[in-house]
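Structure, all two chains, one model.
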Amino acid sequence: MLTANNSTKETPSSWLILSCLFFLFAGCESETAVDKATREGILLMGNTAEPKGLDPHIVSGVLENNIISSLFEGLVVQHPSKDGVALPGVAEKWYPVNKARPDEWIFELRKDVRWSDGKPLTAEDFLFAFRRILTPDLASDYAFMLFYIKDAEPFHKSQRAYLLFRNNDEFPLDWESLKKVDFGPNEKADEKSFNRLGLDHLDSKQLEELKKEPGRFTWPASVSEDVRNLIIDKSLEFSNSGRDLWDLIEFGATAPDPHTLRVKLNAPLPFLPEITKHYTWFPVPKHVVLNHGSIGERFTEWTKPQNLVGNGAFKLKSWRFNDHIEVERNPQYWDAENVGINGIRFLPIANLFTEDRMFYDDLLHVTYTIAPELIEYSRKNYSQYMRNELYLGTYFIRTNVTREPFTDPRVRLAFSMALDQEAIIDNVLQGGQKPAGGLVPPFGGYPVSSSVKFDPERAQQLLAEAGYPGGKGLPDIEYLTTDKETSKATAEAMQAIWKKHLGANIKIKQMEWTSYITNMFDKNYDLAAGGWIGDYMDPLTFLDMWMKDAGNNRTGWHSEKFENLLDRAGQTSDPQARFKLLAEAEGIFLDERPILPLYWYTRNYLLHTDVKGWDPLLLDNHPYKFLKLQRSADAPR
Amino acid sequence: MFRFILGRLLQGLLVLLALYTITFFLAKAMPGEPFTTEKNVSETTKQYLRKLYGLEKPLWQQYIIYPSKIISAGDFGVSTSKGRPVNDIISQSFPVSLVLGLGALTFAIGIGVPIGIISAVRRNSWVDWSLMAVAMVGICVPAFTVGPLLQILVAANIPGLKVAGWGSPLDFLLPAFTLGLVSAAYLARLTRGGLLEILSQDFIRTAHSKGLSPTRVILKHALRGGLLPSVAYLGPAFAAMISGSFIVETIFQVPGMGQHFVNAAIARDEFLLMGVALFFGFLIILMNLASDILTGLLDPRVRIGKEAS
């Protein structure tokens, strides 16, 4: 056997050299990344993931909002510390034409607003932006945020027949009676029939085909042949004319002069300025967008770093895919001298633990969230940076009211009353969430509901009344949730709680995100985890999703009484009376309880004490221009 | 030699076609579609989106269109989840993964091979056993344990080293080490095994009896043959290292390519998924070929020209 004692002496030397280099470099840096950034006035912000893009008309997420709100500015701006208060943005004044019935608003724009390339910004840019997000070809996920504007919805949904005939005296029928026709796409129709596409979406060629073969489209029996032919002929005529549906509508938004924007709504909306804070209402630079493509083109280069032009307090400086996006001061911004920081660096940190460790290691000013497992640790070691704030969102469990046993409201109530909210919050979630007393989370002015309460005895009683005493006769119930660790822990806690109080057998079904969503859409569940974050500061953002045809309902529940109340509230201008009607609607909803509210969200995150002017806001939409960065004595480490 | 390479490349094309076919149909078999979001997206909008991405066409057409676009224009399609061309995503993330992979390779070879040699030379001694035990641990402990441990124990205590991030020159050290560790452990075991086999052969005894120094015998005569198993392993392992790792990238916040394999599948982003899968397949084929050629150069017994004929 061979022995070679000294044979490998030289090989580990490369490793040695490397480690030496390692310590040499290590010695160089004494200022932490946060110290340096504070000195330079750059906010370092964890932002969870790479944005889908920076086009305000294409994206639909919170993380995109964080970036877009630095690059663009809407008509009004969120107040830095007061929820629901609007400060002047591009508009310096705004008011309803008729105070008693705020269904038409005027926004007076500043005369000194410019795009970051120096071109003046006018009301025309707003009109262009509204038309663009509503253009069907652009297929914006979030276009419905503008459906309050008159005729926005029929244009976006390409409702050709409706627009052609609604005001047409020659049309023999009342338009209401045509509701059953598949003008829009019918997913359930046969793949080869035109019902699948929807009559309004057929092009000239398809309409010609339809004329030859009327069997390709199924009409409801109530529509006579004459009406059918009239609709087809006129649709064909319009389609052949090459005109755009835009020419047919009486769009609510107009610009009487370059510095005035007039918005006519479908119904009174006393909180319209709140809605315009959302990025779907932001202007986009017409001259830049059209320079890179047509109005309905989705993938053009106008949002590339070298092309992007905005009107926000900041402009894009650099964008390295999946690494960072950095914005810097926009000298063209109308209020540039009052912007408190020089820039923001957004970091797409997907791993929650990594994000927290980066904060502990002085690499971030603010995190997107905290890993639930690190909340306790952060509280102990970094308490001065811990933020636990109420957020405008509700976590709930959907029930499928089309399936036994949840067809019976008593069973739904029983499951809700047996849900020990506090036990789950204290032992499982540990994030300081608030037990949900109702659907709409608490915020200024609106009477908060407290009808959801833990009451196991009453729950058992209700279950017995429904024919399942002590849980006898209850089928196995499938609880659909996501594949996150916390979802599993919450599901297991509820499984135990419902077993204990109701004798119910719950089967947990965890699925990854898209499958979970798909199953929920298809109502393929008994109970399903869910939640909703408000889009704007009004109870309506939580209530109108439970209307019969609302896409996010997914429970199968609907109630005429509930919808009537929402309708009435929609026609009521007095804020107190309106809130009363909405609260009444919420009461009806909670009596029937198609969802089981669990908790009101809180946001847990870490915020460095160098950041000044960052106050709790229910929508977490901190306006960056009011922030300041100042060295504070108690840096971590 | 030329015929061998050409033959291998043709085989590679078939492999890519099979890979494409499997990925395509698996992607189609997933429940849901790219436009499934929690937002209330109307059916009309979804129809426009499907048209935009060509997803409304019959399956067989879609199956043909994608590769023909790649061949005719080098176009891997547009990612539905990132809203940008797949070509962009690969061209921006691959260089990062390449740097990280080269770093990992350096660690793997720099640590694995010397350990393997020492173990082989000191066979059945406590040095051998302890080194092989360490290697076993290296194979068994997953990156999602090693990574955070390095962050907490090393990065947080050495100023200048960041727990995560990419951009400054030292940022590649910890992720590259984490990524290279498993390969280093494999390499140590493969080198030891390969070397032990060679060391028992006659020509080594001859070299010793000629009076060559033990170092020279090992490095000059034995290592060449002893490294063969390692070289065969390194081809595909290197391809895996430079195509990124989901775990290492998310732990250390590295903008590499590995995360797209997982995220694209979750987001039902079939173009990105097929793009990165095909690119990875291509790399594997290339690296396998390279390691075959290298084996031929190292081992005169493998004559590449003959093998092909």
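The CA atoms of residues 114 and 120 of chain A lie 4 Å apart.
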